[in-house]
Design brief:
2 copies of one chain form a homodimer. The first copy, chain A, is 11% helix and 36% strand. Chain A is mainly β and 126 residues long.
C-alpha cells in the first residue's frame, strides 16, 4: 500500500484531483483521508472524504455515476493525488456539468462555458 | 474581481491546480489565499501561498520559470481554481520534472514515468 503524507494539512486531508482519463479535462477536486485512499485503491472507484458530511463519500454510490479509476498519479511531496477516471454517466459535477470547472474567469465575470449533461433536479430527487 | 470562498478550509486556503494549457497535463497543485488570488489576476502569473514559508509565493520569481496564465476556471463551489498555464522553462516541479505527478501507482509501488527536464541541483543553487 502506498503511504501518503496526510500530516501537512490542518485537518489531515489531502486533495485528490479527478481528471478524465481520455480528454485530460479536470473534472473535480475533492479530499481524501487514509480511509478514502485505501477504499479507492481497494475498490477501483474514486472515494473521497466529505468535509460537509464528515463521512466517507463513495462517489456515485446511489446514482451509479461512479468514477472508475484508470490510473493514479502521486505528486513529489506525497500530499496530492490525481485520479485518472472514467466518469460513468458523463458528469462529475452535482450541478449536472461534466466538470465542476464549467466557468471561466473573463474580466470581473464568471462565464459558463459548458452545457449541462443532466438536470440535477431529476437526478437528485428529494 | 471574482470573489472566491476561502471560508471552508481550516486555514483559509483553497487549492489551485496548474494545468498545461496545451496538453492538459496537470502540472502541480498549490494553495492560494485572497492575496495570492488577486496577485495572480493582476499580474497574469500564477501566484500561490506557501504553507511552509507562510508567505506569498510568486512562482518562478527567482528562476524566471513563471507560469503564464492563459485562462482560469472556477469550480461550482468557488473553492478551487484551475490555472491553465504556459510553464516557462518546461518544468513545474522542484525536482526537475515537467509535472509534480511524475509517479504512477502500480500495485504497491510508485513508478517514475517521466524524465526530468532539468537537474534541480543546478537550478536551485545553494
Amino acid at each position: 500500500m502506498i503511504t501518503l503524507d496526510f500530516s501537512k494539512s490542518v485537518d489531515g486531508l489531502i486533495p485528490a484531483i479527478a481528471q478524465d482519463y481520455q480528454t485530460g479535462e479536470v473534472l473535480m477536486l475533492a479530499y481524501i483521508n487514509n480511509e478514502a485512499w485505501q477504499h479507492s485503491l481497494n475498490t477501483g472507484n474514486a472515494t473521497y472524504w466529505s468535509r460537509s458530511r464528515q463521512k466517507l463519500w463513495k462517489k456515485g454510490e446511489s446514482s451509479g455515476h461512479v468514477q472508475k479509476i484508470k490510473a493514479i498519479y502521486v505528486d513529489c511531496d506525497l500530499d496530492t493525488v490525481v485520479f485518472k477516471v472514467e466518469q460513468i454517466g458523463g458528469a462529475a459535477c452535482h450541478k449536472g456539468y461534466a466538470s465542476c470547472f464549467y466557468r471561466r474567469v473573463e474580466g470581473d465575470e464568471l462565464v459558463t462555458i459548458a452545457e449541462p449533461v443532466f438536470d440535477p433536479e431529476k437526478v437528485y430527487k428529494k
